[in-house]
Every structure is written in structure tokens, then in C-alpha cells.
Amino acid sequence: MRKIIHVDMDAFYASVEQRDRPECRGKPVAVGGSPDKRGAVAAASYEARQFGVHSAMPSRTAVQKCPHLIFVQPRFEVYGAVSQQIRDIFYRYTDLVEPLALDEAYLDVTEQAGDDPSQDSFVELQSRRSATAIAHAIKADILAETQLTASAGVSINKFLAKIASGMDKPDGLYLIRPEAAEAFVANLPIEKFHGVGEVTAAKMHRLGIQTGADLKEWAEVDLVAAFGKVGRHYYRIARAIDDRLVEPNRMRKSIGVETSFADDVCDRPAMHQALEQIATELQQRMADKDTSGRTLTLKVKYADYQQVTRSRTLPEAIATTAQILPLATALLDTLLDSVGDTPLRPQKPVRLLGLAIANLTISAPSTPSDRASHPIYQQLTLF
After folding, report:
1. How far is Cα 160 from Cα 183, in angstroms, rounded to an integer?
2. Is residue 207 included in any domain, yes or no?
3. pLDDT above 70 covers what percent of the chain?
4. Crossing angle, helix 12-20 and helix 76-90, to 10 degrees?
5. How far is Cα 64 from Cα 57, in angstroms, rounded to an integer?
6. Of 188, 211, 237, the domain-final residue
7. Separation CA 198–CA 203 (nearest Å)
8. d(C-alpha 219, C-alpha 212), whole Å
9. In whole angstroms, what separates CA 194 from the centre of its chain?
10. Which end of the chain is more exposed for a tag (fewer CB within 10 A), N or C?
11. Structure pTM?
12. Is residue 163 part of a domain?
């Protein structure tokens, strides 16, 4: 039986800003673009969340909900450095660490660092006796070394550990014992299941599935018929079964860059100029990660917040602005119309453009230590 911990930092970006800015402590803080620049909230402190402010919310809406909200520009280089500091703490306890983002990770502590008497022990023997003790020790180390709090979930698999970490936030620790796992899932509202989004939850409600117990009543073949291949996953998690392994050094899925316009853009030259800047920055990020990719995705968000994407996959990887820009322009042109004598204008004003490259290609490092330090083996992109 495995021992899995899911560690999730509490309001990570906002907490880092409150830590570094004494004037923000105890006050509602939003990390992201200010309302006068058409920005959006990237993260909100718990004080801000009490007013209904949450990530991805337009900044103007956030101010309406919380007029005294303090906006802070994001400092991703700082968040990345703190994230690495936290990850170094994880490796004191196990080599099996799977980062999901800057602020969360799975740890498999079934066999912990220091179990081999020939190695220098990273952890006191007392702390290595149970996953719960290890989670307590990790939380204490994070607090002592970063002055930030984390919540942790402990259980027998990734699905249960992920749910457990959200049960007692902030600064919580929740254990789902093996013998209690099925009963816990049976009583869990279906919208609380990790991986069941708002649309799927609504569909399940229409089918009479309100809780894990209701989901367990369905045969696997019926779940597949109703939800496709993911129905097999639903069948298993309804029984508290999740055989997914904690995968260390998980490869990054994509690299992306996007920009929001201070004023809505309606003309093609302005959008092409923005795409050139985005493509140049994307090239630099790919160079920093020593990678290239075969799938380019264009993201367009209109003034009414409708969002569309267009993608193209190539037979060979691309990495330079000269390769990216013509493809990005062609993808953009599929979303533009001719209006009278003015060719290729958007149907409605555009507020954001973005590009992302996926199907990444690298020369894989040969050893685990090399992979751990290689820049591409990092948390998933936010784009």
C-alpha cells in the first residue's frame, strides 16, 4: 500500500507578496493586472476571497466586489525561486516528487529518503514512521524556511491525497485512512471530485448522480457510454481506486506567452505587430528551455471575454521567430473577415492574444540527476 502526500501552498502568489510587503499583510490582495489596464486576477489572498474575488476574474469585477482590494504586479521570477526552495525541502524526504505547478506537488513517501542506512539521513527516524508525520515535518520546514503556509493531504493514492489537501485550508493537514477511503468517497459531493468540472458535474446531476455513492451505482459500461473513456476513471475513483504513479521529473507540456491590450484592437497591422513581439518572446523562452515544438496554438480573447483557439501541428519541430510568426499569422487570419474594402478585420474587438508551443522536443538527459536540473523538466506552464 502506497503512502501519498499532496502539498498545496496556500494562496501562493498572494502569500509571497504579503510576506514581502508588510503593508499588504492581513489585507485583501490580488496579484495581477490593475483594473485601468484591462487586467485579470492571477491570484487572490484569503482576505480577498472572502469578498468573492478569485483567480481569472477580470480586475474590474474584482474591484466591484472589493473596493479596497490591493493590486500587486506578479513577480514570477520570485515565485519560481520560492517554488524551487520548497521543492528542495520535498527532496529531503523522498526522491519521488511530481510537481504539478509552482505551488503544488505529489510526493510518494512509501520509501523515504534516508531509508538506506548507507546514506546520510535526511529526516529524523521518528518523522519517517508515517506519512502524516512526514507531512507535518514538511509543513514545518516550509514555514520555517519560507515564512509561508502549506496544506497537505495524506492517503493511499493521488486522487484521495489531492482531495484531502483541500479539506482543511489554509495551513491544514487532512488524512484519509485506508479503511475509511471508500466511505469518504461515498459521502463526497460529486462536484468535489478532482477532475469533475462544472459542466460534467451538471451532467451528472441531471443523471441523478449527486455523491460518490450514486456514482458507484453505475456500471462501468454505462459510465463509458455516458462520458466516454473517462467513464472508466469515474468507475474506479468511485471505489477509491487510483493506480497512477507519482512521476518525478514530469516533462513540461507546453510553453506559452500572451499579452493583454490596454485598449481593444480592431486592425490587422496592430495584431500582427503584437504577434511578432509574442513570437519573439516565445522563441526566447524556448531557447532558455533548450527545446522546440511541433504544435503551435493561437489564443484570442475578445472584448466580451469570449475565447477561441486555433492550432496547427507540423511534421517537424520549430523554434525560431521566423518559423513561428508566419504560422501564427495564418492562424490569426482564419479568425478575421473582410469588411467592405478593408480586408481581414476581426468580427469584434480583441483584448488579448497569445501563442503556445506544444509537442515539445528535447535531447533527454540520461540520468535522473541531469533530468532534475534540466530546465524543461519543470512545472506546467500557466498558459
Report:
1. 12
2. yes
3. 85
4. 110
5. 11
6. 237
7. 9
8. 13
9. 13
10. N
11. 0.69
12. no
Q: Find the CATH number of the domain harbouring 126.
A: 3.30.70.270
Residues 146 and 269 in one domain: no
| Domain of residue 331, residue span | 254-373
Count Cα neighbours of 163 within 13 Å in the Cβ-side half-sphere.
23
Report angle CA 7, 24, 84 to the nearest 5 degrees. Answer: 35
217 is catalytic: no
**8 A C-beta contact, residue 268 and residue 355:** no
Q: By the 8 A CB rule, do 292 and 286 touch?
A: yes
State pLDDT tens for residues 160-182.
999 999 999 999 999 999 999 99
Q: Pick from 188, 208, 237: which residue ends a domain?
A: 237
Considering the domain architecture, whether residues 146 and 186 belong to the same structural domain is answered as no
Nearest residue to 106 (alpha-carbon basis) of 242, 248, 254, 2: 248
The values of phi and psi at residue 337, to 5°, are -120, 160
pLDDT over 90 (residue 246): yes
| Catalytic site residue from 104, 179, 258, 276 | 104
The single-letter DSSP state of residue 93 is: T
**Angle at alpha carbon of residue 72, lines to 70 and 77, rounded to 5°:** 155
Determine which helix (DSSP H) or strand (DSSP E) holds 295, and give its type and residue range: strand 292-302
How far, in Å, CA of 103 to CA of 379, rounded? 9
Is 323 found in the same domain as 211? no
Angstrom CA distances, 219 to 209, 214, 327, stand at 13, 11, 46
211 and 349 within one domain:
no
Closest among 250, 220, 253, 256 to 235, alpha carbons compared: 220
Instruction: Compute the distance between CA of residue 52 and CA of residue 65 in angstroms, rounded to an integer.
Output: 7
Domains: count for the chain: 3
Give the CA distances from residue 241 to residues 130, 173, 191, 213, 228, in Å, rounded to whole numbers and listed in that order: 21, 21, 18, 14, 19
Block residue for cell numbers 502526500? 5
In DSSP terms, 282 is beta-bridged to: none
- Per the domain annotation, does 170 fall within a domain? no
Residue 377 binned pLDDT confidence (cut-offs 50, 70, 90): very low
- Taken in order 376, 379, 382, 383, the sign of the CA dihedral is positive
- Give the pLDDT score at 362: 62
Residue 221 C-alpha cell reads as 459500461
Do 194 and 267 fall into the same domain? no
